Amino acid sequence: MGYKYGIWLVYDNREFSTAHIGHFTITCFMEKEEATLLYKELIKMYGKTHQIWTICTKAIEFELNMYKDDNNNIHSWGYEGHTVTKEDIWLKFEQLANKYNCNFSQRIHTSIEYSTDKQLLRLVDLPANKLVSCSIELVDITSNNPLEWSIIDDIK
Fold it and tell me: Among 23, 1, 20, which residue's Cα sits nearest to residue 11?
């Protein structure tokens, strides 16, 4: 089942070493058509690129099944983030997402590693926090395997 379709803030994988596409989740558990509409609306209203101040000096193990429709039982760890705009862009994202049937990410975060076995997770604190540049992307997250998640480029 995975996480259906969603919207991410995607960053260059040189920022953090991940086996999967590096991202901050905005929404997940959406139908493709609705995710496409939200994606287009987000970009039209708020632009494609955003920056996230990432707290990488303190790695966090995230709670299992952190979204309301999540029953994947996939463990993960990563870093929390904060928006850096004067107005709270995350709140604006949420207000727009509330028009759609989706799970909005209440916690700005990036998962660095996923595993079905919690014992395999190896949390890493980095020496300094960093500002990460991201682009809003429409994503296919239907697979249970994070390595198979992909950005949808052929948007109609």
Answer: 23
Indicate the DSSP class of residue 114: E
| 141 within 8 A of 114, measured Cβ to Cβ | no
Q: Which residue has the tokens 């997402």?
A: 97
- Residue 151 host element (H or E): strand 150-151
Q: What is the pLDDT along the chain (156 residues), one digit of tens a residue?
A: 689 999 999 999 999 999 999 999 999 999 999 999 999 999 999 999 999 999 999 999 998 888 888 777 899 999 999 998 777 999 999 999 999 999 999 999 999 999 999 999 999 999 999 999 999 999 999 999 999 999 999 887
Q: Looking at the chain, how many residues does it have?
A: 156
Q: Following DSSP, what letter does each residue of 45-89 receive, concatenated?
A: HH-SEEEEEEEEEEEEEEPTT-STT-----EEEEEEEEE-SSS-H
Instruction: Look up the pTM and report it.
Output: 0.94
Helix (H) or strand (E) holding 97: helix 89-97
Nearest to 31 by CA among 87, 96, 103: 103
Q: Give the C-alpha separation, 10 to 115, whole Å.
A: 20
